[in-house]
Amino acid sequence: MVEGLFYLLLFPGLAFQVTCGLVFEWADRKLLARFQRRVGPRWYQPLADLVKLFSKEDMLPTGASDWAATILPLVSLASVLTAGLYVPIAGFTPFSFEGDLIVILFFMGVPTMAYYLVGMSSVGIYSILGGARSLLQYFSYEVPLLLAFSGPAVLSGSWSVSGILEAQTELGPFFLFQPVGFGLAVVGLIGKLKRDPLDIPKAKSEVVAGSLTEFSGPKLALWHLVMDIQAIIGIFLLINLFFGAPVGAAPWIGALIFGGEVLLMIFILSAASSLFARLRIDQLAGLGWRVLVPAGIIQLLFVILMGV
Amino acid sequence: MAKKNGLLFALVDALFSRPETVRYPFGPVSLPEGFRGAIEFDAECCIGCGLCVRDCPANALELIRESREVYQLRYFPTRCAFCGQCQSTCARGAISHSNHIVPSTANPDAISVVLKDTSGGRLD
Amino acid sequence: MTKNIIPVGPQHPLLKEPISVNIEVSGEDVLGGSLRIGYVHRGIERLAQERTYVQNVHLIERICGICSHVHTTTYCYAVEALLGIEIPPKAQYIRALMCELERIHSHLLWIGILAKHIGLEMVFMHSWHNREVVLDIMEELSGGRVSHAANLIGGVRFDMDAEHDQMVRRQLRKLEDQLFGVLDAISTDTTIKARTKGVAPITAEQIRQYCVVGPVARASGVDVDMRRDNPLPPYDKLDFNVVTYPDGDAWARTIVRVDETRESLKLCEKILDQMPEGPVTTRARRKVPAGETVIRSEAPRGEVFYYLRSDGSEYPARLKIRTPTLAALSLMPVQLSEIRVADIPVVLAGIDLCIACADR
Amino acid sequence: MTEVDLLTRLKEVAGESVARIEPINRETVYALPVEKWLNVVAVLTGELGIRHLSAITAQQRDASQGEIEVMVHFWQGRGITFVLTLPGDHPEIPSITAIIPGADFYEREAAEMFGINFTGREATPHLLLPDDWDQAPPFTGRITHD
After folding, report:
1. End-to-end Cα spacing for chain C
2. B11 Cβ partners below 8 Å, 6+ apart?
3. Chains that touch A (3 or more CB pairs under 8 A)
4. Which of A200, B2, B87, B124 is least surrounded by Cβ atoms within 10 Å, i.e. has the fewest?
5. D–C contact (≥3 CB pairs within 8 Å)?
6. D52 class by beta-carbon count within 10 Å (0-12 exposed, 13-18 middle, 19+ buried)
7. Angle C25-D109-C356 (CA atoms, 0-180°, nearest 5)?
8. Above 50 in pLDDT, residue C16?
9. Which residue of C has its CA nearest to D137?
10. How is chain B split into domains, by residue range?
11. Which domains are assigned to chain C?
12. How far apart are CA C39 and CA D130, in angstroms?
């Protein structure tokens, strides 16, 4: 009971994930700032933003669904936190079971749906456009992402993340065997997180802030938290699936290596957002279905043949 | 190489060079030689021709006549557009721009200073 | 599909200045748009009639925050034409130098804004970082980053000695060093190309119909440049290329400005090389004899047109200012059709909006 | 096309009242009758290829007379300006937007600032002035300040 509460609230549950999410946001903003020759925020800036937003007035335009706007960020937060429970941190897996990869992917998909619904339940044209775009984008990146994630699963013959980790201790990190799959997973993750260059649903110059245009105060804070935690969970998952966990090392060395891998991933994401211009939604659909999906299928076939 | 990976090169270059941000109120601010701040007035040189008052596009100057030889200048620093016209107009070199930055206000008529001579009429 | 109106402006993250574009969309397709300007109309043409010629120099400077110098230069040439005086050659060269620096600064600003609109915040920051060098040069020379107050009727307000000359050359070399990589990157980058190539093409015929000028016209293959066609001194003694591209799409508009930035850098060096010695001001009377004049000059955004009539007093009788943005804006509703919602920022950026100029 | 040729052609189109008046700076200036204005513009943009409209300047040369002068500035390698004089009490001039779409904004501005009525084009909302502007056009008469 006490142990369960510890897992849920502290590690790897709420407190740890929120902290990691905020650290991710800080690292990301700092890196972006340095790429742009700026100084960047101090380490407590994301937390300060969060506190500030929570203390702000909560407004919604008349006609927007108050019910949807309140419940959807909470549902999203709950699902990303739940997903986080099943993702191993440096090989530490308290709740592992066969098939937890599917559960994680399901829960990770919930915020996207919530984002779509929240846009559609609003009255502003920007929100509606943002919601519609997020669904279109979902169809473009989700299939390549699933194909990329099934690579490690097929190779290790297990649909649990800890099973995939175990397989990697024998075979070596999977990104060596599946570089294409790894690339696809990164692109898919960027799409899932709606980050530059695939921030089409919330492109500032086109649809202001997408579905979240009408949001303010605590609800907006919750959405920011969801995005941050979703990002860090996605990164954790990617590392588990493609880098594996160090074998037989002391826990602190394992944690150190894991932290290094996380930083590398954050660097890749930040650099990608700095280096590429935002795609149009039709270009993304074209890229997704003409390039990424075939590449994913070929990669999967290659993995299946290798397994045989 | 630099051509092909232009943006990547710029990114790495930026990452390993010092940030350009100026921490404005905390660090030193370098002003150029010809910076146009609050004006300074040299009553010794002034002959009271009043051209500066006429040419001022912002109506920031008023000439006060003390006697035939002695003139003072009333200056509204927050009306001033810092254009340098009075300095260029004054044939006797009685008006010059200092490097004192004047903070802006909501009411431009609120502050006025009577400039008597260079040392006493300084705006701080 | 239902039709919706996207209100871009008067306040919108896309815009730095207030303008209202109501864009009719159906899903992701743009059907058309209507335009409303005048949010920053200050009545400068009317105000100018209430001020003396000398005061007007500084009023005119405040038409625009980017091309402020070219406005005062054109105005001063107009007044000097009425006065019948010619300013000393060195003053002409200093005016031209400031004009070219301003062109670099305006184009770099534009490149940054385009990059920001298509989600390349890093290029935006780097471009504006380079622009800062140009602003530093101008501040060092004139004492002001944006309001240079460089012009007087009858000359320029500051002189350039050998030290200034060295400083400008040093800064320009520094700028070249850090700029050319970014410019190359912009003209070869795949994603920028993907977002701008073929977007909202303007034909040369449309350019002529709508009397559009400047880089937008040159990007559609219309070879106009008032620096060459109707040179104010000292452009008649300077040798430079006018960059044109035939494509007419957003990509061509980008490349034209990138190339013009390079061209202007070269021109700055030439101006410095040819800079004569001598005084920088000449005496100008306050009362301007009756008469009228028309002056055309090339601002960073295209042809600036000034009509000035004097009735012999100290106050202008009529001052007419036509800014290049006004011409380009009339073309915008035409461009806002058969594009996607995602192209709106590219189209809006492409014509280099300067609303303060357009409204006056 | 030389200036003499241009003047002859203009006289053919718009009658003998066309006059070449004193040039302004480097511009050649022609005075035209308002009635033939549309025909002149059609000839200019069509066979003469003078298509670039730089600006339209309206002004009251003498406020007491009230006559409004419309100057239309073209550019084709050199500046060509046409001057049309309108009566002050009822200034009316045919719109050229059908021939030169780029004239739209300039005409609207002149209409707002001087109260000139450009005929033959659809009514448009204000371009520069506020929507609720109810005073006289800014360049005619005095503006009352609050």
Report:
1. 40
2. A35, A271, A274, A275, C122
3. B, C
4. B124
5. yes
6. buried
7. 70
8. yes
9. C46
10. 34-115
11. 43-321 (1.10.645.10)
12. 8
- Domain coordinates of chain D in residue numbers? 3-89
Q: Which residues of C351-360 are buried (b: 16+ CB within 10 A; e: fewer)?
A: bbbbbbbbbb
Distance CA A30, CA A49 (A): 15
Nearest CA in chain C to A32: C122
By residue count, chain B amounts to: 124
For residue D116, give the 3-state DSSP assignment.
Answer: coil
Chain C residue with minimal CA distance to B87?
C157
Out of 1.10.8.420, 3.30.70.3270, 3.90.1150.10, 3.40.190.10, the CATH code matching B34-115 is 3.30.70.3270
Question: Residue D141 has what DSSP assignment?
Answer: S
Q: Identify whether the C-beta of residue C261 lies closer than 8 Å to the C-beta of residue C108.
A: yes
| Tokens standing for residue C153 | 């009727």
Contacts of D25 in chain C (CB under 8 A): 81, 293-295
Inter-chain contact C58–B81, Cβ cutoff 8 Å?
yes
Low-confidence ranges of chain D (pLDDT < 50): 143-146
Whether the per-residue pLDDT at B120 is higher than 50: the answer is no
- C149 at interface of B, judged by CB pairs closer than 8 A: yes
Check residue B117 and give its pLDDT. 60
Q: What is the pLDDT of residues D25-66, one digit of tens each?
A: 778 888 888 888 888 888 888 887 788 888 888 888 776 667
Could you please state the CATH topology (level 3) that the domain comprising D3-89 is classified under: Beta Polymerase; domain 2 (3.30.460)
Torsion of CA A216, A220, A221, A226, to 10 degrees: 180
Tens digit of each residue's pLDDT (9 = 90 or more) over A28-53: 999 989 888 888 898 899 999 999 99
Chains B and A touch (3+ CB pairs under 8 A): yes
